[in-house]
Every structure is written in C-alpha cells, then in structure tokens.
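Bench log. Compound arrived from synthesis this morning; before running ITC I wanted a structural hypothesis for how iron/sulfur cluster sits in the protein. Inputs:
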Amino acid sequence: MTNDKSRSALKILLNADIKACRRCEGMNENGVTQSAPGWGNLDSPVAIVGQSLCEQCMAPQEPFYEGSGSLLEAAFKLADCDKQDLFLTNAVHCHPGGNRKSLVVEIANCSSYLYRELEIVRPRLVLALGEDAARALLFLYPTARKVLSRFEPPKNLARRRCRTSISRSIRHGSNVNTTAPSKRST
Ligand code: SF4
C-alpha cells in the first residue's frame, strides 16, 4: 500500500508534470491559459472535479477560487467542512482562454492527470460538476457505481437547491468508512 510520504511525493511529481505540460496547443501559457494541479487534502474521502481551470484560479493556483467557488464555499459550510478538508481538481487543468468550452482533445489529453490525482487521493466519492467532468470520469471509471444528476447553472432558488445538494453529497461521502478504500462513486 502506498504510504502518506510516497503519496505526497507522487503528488509533487504530478504537479511538476502538469506545470510543464505542453500536450495541448495554446494551453499552459502563464497568466493566459495557465494550469493549476488539483488542490487540497490528499486524505479527503470526497473529490470534486470541475470542468476546467477558471481565469481567477490561475494566480492563486487553486481550483474553484471565487466565482463558482463561492457557491461551493457555501455548500462546504452547510456540510460543516472547509475547502482545505476536501480535494478539488478539474477535468482540464489549464484555463481555456476567454472561458471557452474545452475541446474534446484537451479533455482526453488531461484525463491521465486526473486519473493520477484520483489514484493518489483514492476518494470514496467523486462529484463531477459539469458535463466535461462527468465525461472524463465515466471514461476513466466506466464500471464505477454512479448516480448521475445534471448540474444546472445555479440561479436564485436553483442556486440554493444546488448548494444543498452538493453539501448533502459531501456529508454522505465524508461519512463513508474510509479505512478500506476499494470502490468509487461518481
Ligand atoms: S489542458 Fe492538461 S493536457 Fe492540456 S496542456 Fe494543460 S495540463 Fe497539459
């Protein structure tokens, strides 16, 4: 079994690979289409996977920073946990300039990094926020036990419902016994 020290070492190597990656044309340019590796607690039973790195996430090198991250922060509060207790990443680790939709080739190119991150963290529950994240996870884990529900852009009441639903999922994942990680859910 991989111990904590070697998992941290693997994550450091993985972060360096992501920062140096040039697989996708026009991606991973500093301050324009920059990348950020997955972030947070490597022991988290819950991983949250978004679509791609947002513009404001490039400088702090932190997925879900402000913007849609504020919705997640509210969900974390409801679930009685902090952002740093969880593991957060994206299907596409670079920022697609101008907030354009990720290309299929970018999702495919980046999927090996997502896989390596999840193999290090080994969460019991993976929340896919968005179509691209769900597609990447279903490709990587076709036999995972899954509950799919569509993630709608939150507005007014929908925003509250969405926040509550995320917090319930986090609570559920956090309450699962993590001593014998063998199965994942998406
Ligand atoms: S999106 Fe992923 S695969 Fe493409 S350049 Fe960035 S880190 Fe590399």
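What the model suggests: DSSP finds five helices and four strands in the chain. The pocket of iron/sulfur cluster is lined by residues 18, 21, 23-24, 27-28, 35, 92-94, 106, 109-110, 113 (CB under 6 Å).
ITC booked for Thursday regardless.
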